[in-house]
Amino acid sequence: MPIYAISSVKGDYASLVGLLDKINFNPELDYLWFCGNLINTGPDSLEILRFVKNLGKQAITILGPQELRLLSIASGFLSADAADTFSEILTAPDRDALLKWLRQRALIHHDAKLNFTLTHAGIPGAWTLSQALTFAYEVESVLSGSNFASFLENRRQDQTGWHAKLRGWKRLNFITNAYTLMKYCQQNGKLDFSATGPLHKQPVGLRPWYRQTERQTSHLQIIFADEANFNDTHYPGIYPLPAHGKPAALKLSAMPTLIFADQE
């Protein structure tokens, strides 16, 4: 019963199939954890959504920014760009079922037995695991409920600071931004969405989210999509999945192993 965490697929169905062949994936016995950004960029977003949805309980899927972008476009709150590859999804006969399935996905998955936690971007340093799960549920319950359109209409990516008294859309927007967009942080924990690229090229004071001092989830093993290309040295308990290029698989075990589709 192996479990594999899969990096961002980004609409590349052929590479995903090649990776699953490489790990000899058995859909009746094995489990896949997808870290979000299943879709967009590549040409096969519709095929990927159908494939992962049809895996049922054999797959765990976390929301990334591309899934939220699709939901906002489908609801009429964003306009698609020329680079977006959502058109087949938006015109598919099973469009509504696929969008509803996406709205029911989580922002975080924690396996207490394995002590592995999956998110797309990471977990703010000030949050304990209990808080992280509770705050994620606040967003998940709105997105999967009847008021999801209001959430998407009020979706903003400029909420970068957190405090316990945040309420309403500002609170939900920070939680969503942290789980889907967070990369670098300032010393006070404020999110910085403009910083990207290797750690050694960043200004003094910026650090990857997982290097925040006194991070409350330092005891966890956290898997996330390395959209920033941190190019960092190995950091205990942190497993960044490559978010650029072909997808890869992290086999969850006592000694997690990263596997690439074209690896010999």
Provide the gyration radius in Å.
18 Å
Largest sheet: 5 strands, mixed
Rough outline = globular
CATH topology: Purple Acid Phosphatase, chain A, domain 2
Q: Order of strands across the biggest sheet?
A: 3-2-1-11-12
Catalytic activity: P(1),P(4)-bis(5'-adenosyl) tetraphosphate + H2O = 2 ADP + 2 H(+)
GO molecular function: bis(5'-nucleosyl)-tetraphosphatase (symmetrical) activity
Family: Belongs to the Ap4A hydrolase family.
EC number: 3.6.1.41
Please provide a written account of the structure.
The chain has 264 residues and is of the alpha/beta class. It has a single domain, classed as Purple Acid Phosphatase, chain A, domain 2 (4-Layer Sandwich), CATH 3.60.21. Helix content is 29%, strand content 17%. The protein is built from eight helices and twelve strands. The chain has helices at residues 13-22, 45-54, 65-74, 87-90, 95-103, 129-143, 148-153, 168-180; strands at residues 3-6, 31-34, 59-61, 108-111, 116-119, 184-185, 191-192, 207-208, 221-226, 238-242, 248-251, 257-260. It has a five-stranded mixed beta sheet. Strands 4-5-9-10 form a four-stranded mixed beta sheet, with helices on one face. The longest helix is centred in the middle third of the chain and has 15 residues, at 129-143. The protein starts with a strand and ends with a strand.
